[in-house]
Amino acid sequence: MKPLRILLTDALGILLMITAPLLGWLPGPGGLPLFIAGLSLLAINHDWAKKLLDSMRKHSGAVLRKLMRKIKLEQLLYWGFVLLAIGFGVYTLLTNDSAERYLGFVYLLVGILLIIIHEDQA
Asked: What is the pLDDT of residue 47?
C-alpha cells in the first residue's frame, strides 16, 4: 500500500506542477498556488522538493512585499470575484443537472465578460 501511496502522491504533485504554467495567464496568482501545492505533495516523499519548498518559504516574504505594493485592494477583490465566478461556473457545469447547469453557464459567462471588460478598459 505504501508504494502505491507514494506513486499517487508523486503523480498528483507532478500533475499540479505541470498544470500551473497553463493557468499562468489568468489574473491574480495564476498557477502559483497549484505549483506550490504540487511541490508540497512531492516534498512528502523527496528531499530535493522539501529543500526547494523551504527555500521558497524563506524568500517569499520579500517577493510578496514587492508585489503587494503594486497591487491595489480593489484589483485583488475584482480578480478574486472573477476567478470565483469562473470556478463556480465550471464546477456547476461539471457536477449538476441540466437545470442547474444553466446557472453554471451564466456564472462562467459573467466571469469571461468581466475579463473582456477589464481588458478593454486597460
From this structure: 92
